[in-house]
Here is the input.
Amino acid sequence: MALQPLFILYVVIVFSFIVTSVFMFKPKGDERVHLIFFWLGVALSVLVTFINATSLAPDMTVRIIAAWGGLLFSGIGIIVRMITGKTNTVANVLVMTCTVYGAASYLLLM
Here is the structure.
């Protein structure tokens, strides 16, 4: 069985997610570094959600809605980050949850 290109892309995204998560929680770092890795985490969560939702068949409406619904975690994380104005563990965890949700639901449907 050959590896599918979409699965290889997911492996690269998950590796990037792990690196991003480490730097999001790096203590006593420069605030700009935390901000860059937070937005990189948001971009990865949107990418994972997009791939997950668009890889489903059109007749799987409930699963497609559930896939897009994962972005709610990331959206709430962005709102929390904007309200506090600085590095926030809750916002980071919410963005990470969105990425994990998207990756896990894709792998479970594969």
Remarks:
- Helices lie at 5-24, 31-54, 61-69, 71-84, 89-109.
- The CA atoms of residues 34 and 87 lie 7 Å apart.
- The longest helix spans residues 31-54.
